Amino acid sequence: MTATRSNNGKKSEPAARSGPIFRFLTSVRLAIVALSLIAATSVLGSVIKQGGTEEEYLALYPEKTYHFIKLFGLDDAYHSPWFYFLLGVFALNLVLCTLQRIKRLAREKGAGKKGIPDVRAVAAGGSGFTVPADRREEIFRRLGGSYRKKAISDTVILYEKGSLSRYGVIIIHTSVLLVLLGGLMGLLGGQKGFIVLHAGEETNSAMSRSPSQPAIRLDFTVRCKDFRVSFYPGGEPKEYASDIEITDAAGKVVKEGRIRVNEPLSYGGMRLYQSTYGMSNLFTFIVDGKRIVLGEQEVASAGKAPFMVARYAAEVHNFGPGVMVAYMDGQEPKTIWFLSKVEKMKTHMIEGSRVTLEKIDGKYYTGLEVARDPGVPVVLTGFGFMLLGLYITFFTFHRRIYVVDEGDRIIVAGTAPRNREGFLEELKKLAEGLA
Amino acid sequence: MITHHTILGVATILYLALFFLHVLYFATKKKGIVRAAWYCLYATLVIQTAGIGMRWVESYRLGIGHVPLSNYYESLIFFSWSISVLVVIMKRRLAYPAITFAAAVISLVLMAYASLAPGVDKGIQPLIPALQSNWLHVHVITCFIAYAAFAVSFICGGLFFFGSGRVVPPADTLDDINYRSIIIGFSMLTSGILTGAVWAHYAWGSYWSWDPKETWSLITWIVYALVLHLRMTGGWRGRKTAILSIIGFASVVMTYFGVNFLLAGLHSYAT
């Protein structure tokens, strides 16, 4: 199908191709409208609170505004259908624009080979100069350095430079498409979660960022061997790092390493980042002679009836730190306080089990971000092309210089579609001391 | 004892002198004053560079050594320095008293604000772990060269409405300088955003998180991309370009200052 189309030749293009809709889709105007709307949505997204709960929005805005925000998905503007639609239109426009540009460039290149401008007229127009025939060697020497030379006929030689700059815009536009493509890949195939571990603990699942989504199951186990944090004299954190061990499903250690801020660890396409740290309390209880360690909100099932660590308080009625434990007395929920500094309040009977609070330890935990993003290599390639494209578009320019040997004199003249001013300066330098 | 604060104070006074030299020129139109102003700018730049260097050295003496590009105060100083460096580099093109005057005013305001505003912490702070990366330097430097170039573009845009005369360059020249500043700014802003994204990929686990500063830098990028497209394909010149470059700079100001004060986000180091 495509083959037949291209074989149809340039003259008989299908009507749809040059129809008004197609022309609109390829127009710079559409690009400008799409980009402006993307920018406008971004402004709204940066001003309106993103990803909050209904209560948070109602506390900030009147109800009507909230409904409006919800209707247009502005509470998650950058992932709203509206925003994706804009990005899609923009990407389509960019693809079509770029294809057209490539086509046009190919056509121009074909034409460029045939048509040599009237060099004498170009020189007369100001972008050229004439030198006596005996300076022939000097002109060739000066042009020989950095220009690409091509003999067109016995008397006309073409010198070219910066011909790559014609492709600059195509490179930039393609790079933007690559970044968008990489973003899409990350969106479809990416995962993001969060792990909290105390030293010595391990897990094979990560919490999702939003509580409504299920936890992410990892196909490996992350164990935190150690976590350390150091501080500056002023109290600000200087460095925090986790010693991590990754074991596969068979229980074999497959990766070990220290994760610092700015120094992630990657395993099987998953990257682990040192994100935060904090301190939480661990409560050591002795239940009927058995020692157990619980975190907050954790349930112990060692005794005759399960109980849960409900709440910690650093100070309970001036009796020092204590922890509230909840349990079920038959059908009735009950709570009881254990105080670590008061002998009488250290031990209680819970449903026939003897429970003693042995100690409360403050312990650091490490907060690790886990992320998989298959789009990253594509995005990074896009970045590279973008910088290359910008450089050759804005800081190099294409020029053709024709040297015509007329026997008694040499005409040197040329054209530069962009940056005529810079080109004239260049010609002036070429002509220096020769006229 | 002479500290970097003293040296940067001298630089601020020199910017003030630069301001008055221009005023003097506008009043007397004596060519010699312009030359004196350029020497004054060179001297200011040398002193300011020395001040930044001394702050760098002093941070090492405090045992928390790092390049002075890490907080709001340091960024203000570096912003004003970047504008002056750009003016000197582009001297051949923008050596018009109106432009150098406006650039000196912006640098002076930045320096004065940095040293006088009570909300700006002038102390040398240790680097928090997230900032301990080599990406910090290249990211901050590219961003601020971009801001400086956009400031020059803004100056040209603003001067367009003053009508050309003996001090204000002709409209065509302004348009040319404006365009050149925008392509430098746009390329540098792109580099700044890209280096930031790569850094974020290593530090935050995501190359793009729609943090307000990221978002506003993208908005700024889009504004200048529009300017370039309207210029190249729509042939927008003169008044239209001038208005656009003012809008663009408003977006830069929002990215740099506005986000810090109006919107909370990950980039909160710079406040």
Distance between the termini of chain B: 28 Å
- Using the CA coordinates, give the radius of gyration of chain B: 19 Å
Strand pairing plus helix content of chain A: what structural class? alpha+beta
Oligomeric state of the chains in view: heterodimer
Number of helices of chain A: 12
How much helicity do the residues of chain B have? Answer: over 70%
Q: Low-confidence parts of chain B lasting 5 or more residues at pLDDT below 50?
A: none
Number of strands of chain B: 0
Give the topology string of chain B: H per helix, E per strand.
HHHHHHHHH
Would you count the extended β strands of chain A for me? 19
Q: Helix coverage percent of residues of chain A?
A: 25-40%
Name the shape of chain A in a single word: elongated
Ends apart, CA distance between termini of chain A: 59 Å
Question: What report would you give on this structure?
Answer:
- The complex is a heterodimer of chains A (435) and B (271).
- Chain A is built from twelve helices and 19 strands.
- With 435 residues, chain A is α+β, with helices and mostly antiparallel strands.
- The radius of gyration of chain A is 36 Å and the shape is elongated.
- The longest helix of chain B has 33 residues.
Q: Which terms summarize this structure?
A:
heterodimer; A: 435 residues; alpha+beta; 19 strands; disordered N terminus; B: 271 residues; mainly alpha; flat
Structural topology:
The complex is a heterodimer of chains A (435) and B (271).
Chain A (H helix, E strand, L loop, with lengths): L1 H6 L7 H4 L1 H7 L1 H20 L6 H7 L2 H9 L9 H34 L4 H6 L3 E5 L3 H9 L3 E4 L4 E6 L6 H22 L1 E8 L3 E7 L7 E16 L5 E11 L5 E8 L4 E3 L2 E18 L2 E5 L4 E2 L6 E7 L8 E8 L2 E8 L7 E4 L2 E20 L3 H19 L4 E7 L3 E7 L4 H12 L4
Antiparallel strand pairs in A: 1-19, 2-3, 3-18, 4-5, 4-17, 5-6, 6-7, 7-8, 9-10, 10-11, 10-17, 12-13, 13-14, 14-15, 16-17, 18-19
Chain B lengths: L3 H25 L2 H31 L10 H18 L1 H4 L2 H20 L18 H25 L11 H33 L8 H21 L5 H25 L9
Helix pairs in contact in B: 1-2, 1-5, 2-3, 3-5, 3-6, 5-6, 6-7, 6-9, 7-8, 7-9, 8-9
